[in-house]
Amino acid sequence: MKSNGKAVLTYGDGKSVDLPVYSGSIGPDVIDIRSLGQTGMFTYDPGFLATASCQSAITYIDGDAGLLYYRGYPIEQLAQNADFMEVCYLLLNGELPTASQRAAFESNIRSHTMVHDQLTNFFKGFRRDAHPMAVMVGVVGALSAFYHDALSITNAEHRAISATRLLAKVPTIAAMCYRYNTGLPFMYPRNDLSYAANFLYMMFATPCEEYVPNPVLVRAFDRILTLHADHEQNASTSTVRLAGSSGANPFACIAAGIAALWGPAHGGANEAVLKQLSEIGDVSQVGKYIARAKDKNDSFRLMGFGHRVYKNMDPRAGVMRQTCHEVLTELGLHDDPMFKLALELERIALEDDYFISKKLYPNVDFYSGIVLRALGIPVSMFTAVFALGRTVGWITQWNEMISDPEQKIGRPRQLYVGPPKRDWVPVNRRG
Ligand code: CMC
């Protein structure tokens, strides 16, 4: 980061403090407020709307312009030309791989796809109808009990081994969550298949029949992973960094990220989109629900619309929209009532003044929910799929944080608004 002058904060009766200003490579400048502590004051910023919690060289977002770059490469170019393995290499290592680096990376991931056999016993402890994310949080966290031979977070080689294990095993665990849920036998990974095809295989193959992956659907799934691979300092990534700042092991940190991702305002949104489409039920009801979304006295929100950062079209949504049409065409689903309903909702929202003026565009989850449903992935697995794509981002961000010499344990302060000091009163003198 480059120094770019200073900001001066004046407070109280004529006191002031100089605050350095820094520029990144692109994007807005930041004011370094670390020295504010000396004044005895803190900043107040619920939801971190104006706070940069770290410096990072991984992902750049310009929400107003609708830009998303991984390591400087626009997401549209990566989604069009690269596959998820290449994106993983790029995120983890900072550069696109050469052909031999790519082959070595992929072969390393493939050789770690199986999970410890004892781990399968964990699943038996869960109810069959448990939500896959509930199981994911538990089982991914439990990986640290199985792979504790390389858990030193100060050892770069150990960190790389844990990264490979997470990247390779999270799809296996996610597919196992679904299979346990449905009573189907677990399928061992097939290392001759691509990352995306192997996941679809573990989800949908049975030991009784040959499974032939459909290349259009594999490509669509691979794109979903690419589009979800990282997204700067969102809630789950910040959770991973905060958990990791205390020195917790990477499996525990990623489990914390999975927990944060589960919420409907974050990764649970694509699940919420499909649930809402079912609730709306029919194209004839769209007007009623749009009216509810616009009603100030109704807490109802149209799921899959709006974004905290993008106040323009989310660039991922544009790519996913195209993929959505490719998949619907491949599967001949354009006339499916649920998809018709989704497309009608999209059309109205894109033309409606309320949504236009508040810059509420369809977000990536709106389209990914539709694509995932078309791929046959059950709604309850949607957030698990998001976690699968985001794992590489979480690990990359965690690794960057551990390697940052300025890293400190995360410890925000507060504005206390509770009672001032008071003395304890015996129970017979209360009330
Ligand atoms: N439907 C109807 N009105 C909305 C919606 C919506 N989906 N989203 C925002 N608004 C309105 C909101 O009522 C408010 O109106 P007013 O100014 O009159 O009070 C205004 O737009 C601003 O809303 P906000 O909650 O202050 O905006 P935010 O930036 O804090 O929230 C959001 C962003 C994503 C939480 C919100 O748009 C939302 O709840 N969307 C639906 C859920 C969803 O799709 N979430 C997935 C987000 S992308 C996934 C990810 O990256 O993890």
Notable characteristics:
431 residues, mainly alpha, three-stranded antiparallel β-sheet, 6 strands, binds carboxymethyl coenzyme *A
Give your account of this protein's structure.
- This protein has 431 residues and is mostly helical.
- 49% of the residues lie in helices and 7% in strands.
- The protein is built from 17 helices and 6 strands.
- The chain has helices at residues 75-81, 84-93, 99-110, 120-124, 132-146, 156-182, 195-204, 215-228, 235-245, 250-261, 269-280, 286-294, 315-330, 337-351, 353-357, 364-374, 382-403; strands spanning 2-11, 15-23, 30-31, 59-62, 67-70, 73-74.
- It has a 3-stranded antiparallel β-sheet, with no helix packed on it. A 3-stranded antiparallel β-sheet has the order 4-5-6.
- A hairpin with a 3-residue loop joins strand 1 and strand 2.
- The longest helix is centred in the middle third of the chain and has 27 residues, at 156-182.
- The model has no long low-confidence stretch (mean pLDDT 94).
- Carboxymethyl coenzyme *A binds next to loops.
- The site of carboxymethyl coenzyme *A has 19 residues, from loops.
Distance between the termini: 58 Å
Which structural class do the helices and strands define? Answer: mainly alpha
Strand order of the largest sheet: 1-2-3
* Heteromolecules bound: carboxymethyl coenzyme *A
Short description, anyone?
This protein has 431 residues and is mostly helical. 49% of the residues lie in helices and 7% in strands.
